[in-house]
Amino acid sequence: MAKIPSKMIFRFLLFSWIISLILGISARGEEPVRVAIFPFEFQAKESLGYLQDAIFVTISGRLVEEGDIEVVEPKRLRSALPTPETTEISEEMARNIARGLDADYAIIGTLTKVGEFVNIDARLIGIDRPAPPLRVASQYQGLENAMKGLAEFADSTRRRIVMASAAPQKEEKPGTQSKTASIYEKVLEGIRGEKPPPPQPAQGLETFQTLATFLRGVDVGDVDGDGMNEIVLIDKRTLWIYKQTGGRLRLFRKIEGHQKD
Question: How far is the C-alpha of 153 from the C-alpha of 147, rounded, in Å?
Fold first, then answer.
């Protein structure tokens, strides 16, 4: 008898559980706030470029979970930089580029690693919307704790943006549409079995799970029978399902459960 791969068993159980819970839900109709997450600058003896994708996914995953915030597509943002490899980004540069991308906010940051200690300096910048300034400068022991710190920064960022959006605005932008591609594109390469090139070891699922430790699993598949693939993320007690509609990543369903070790 042929042995069924464990990955197939996991997917079958996961999607069976999701389908049994989903009865149908309407998508949000309001225009989301747009955030540009710029590449972080790294200061370390060793090369840390492989962390760039993990940082982006860690921050953006927390921002978009309710569907009222969207993130500028990384490829589109990089094409607006002086060079695709640019990481030294001033606040003024971030404002100008983000404004050109119709973003309401920008996030810039620096990661410094000395031995086992990692310092992160991250900032939220309001472009044409009033928002309380937010800056986090913290030290962590190990990259794993640093990624958890970035997740906490993303949570604080989301709260600031939501609070600012709830306040009356002097001027509102007309509804504009942007092509926001799936922010999990590189992560999903590992799930689909499409291994990334050797020079990019951090784009697979295994490395992502090691760095973004608040997630327990990521997968893709047609969970509601509409013929389109959805993105599924799981942590200790929550499951999120995202749909790609009109070039935007939208929260389709959020399911809370009991935390189990």
Answer: 10
